């Protein structure tokens, strides 16, 4: 199906997300901090990045900005997965180029559906 990079510093959440997305037929790789995640995105050039906001070394907003600034990554879709839930947080996420935003705590079914939706919109 699709190539997905999950960037999440909470190992349990990363494992859960990766398991659910692999179960849906996707090829998934996982990184646990923003710098490693950005490096993986540049190497893999995935269809989708599921990106935590609050992480060490680079936060999700910085990673999203770097992805959007790189013309070679123009087709990569970004879904922020975060506990940040204020209206201003949502506005900031979309302002830097996020394609979607899922708030923690989250349903893995909803996340899988949102991944499918951003994949359907590409092109």
TrEMBL record:
One of its GO terms (molecular function) is phosphorelay response regulator activity. It comes from the Bacteria. The keyword Nucleotide-binding does not apply. The keyword DNA-binding applies. It holds the Pfam family Response_reg. One of its GO terms (biological process) is regulation of DNA-templated transcription. SMART domains: REC (SM00448). Residues 3-119 form the Response regulatory domain. SUPFAM superfamilies: CheY-like. The modification 4-aspartylphosphate is found at residue 52. Keywords: DNA-binding, Phosphoprotein, Transcription, Transcription regulation, Two-component regulatory system. GO terms for cellular component: cytosol; protein-DNA complex. This is DNA-binding response OmpR family regulator.
């Amino acid at each position: 199906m699709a190539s997905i990079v999950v960037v999440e510093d909470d190992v349990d959440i990363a494992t859960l997300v990766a398991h659910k997305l692999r179960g849906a037929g996707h090829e998934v790789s996982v990184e646990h901090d923003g710098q490693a995640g950005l490096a993986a995105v540049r190497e893999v050039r995935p269809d989708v990045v599921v990106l935590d906001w609050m992480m060490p070394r680079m936060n999700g907003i910085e990673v999203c900005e770097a992805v959007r600034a790189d013309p070679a990554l123009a087709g990569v879709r970004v879904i922020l997965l975060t506990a940040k839930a204020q209206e201003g947080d949502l506005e900031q996420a979309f302002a830097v180029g996020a394609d979607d935003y899922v708030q923690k705590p989250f349903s893995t079914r909803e996340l899988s559906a949102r991944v499918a939706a951003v994949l359907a919109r590409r092109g």
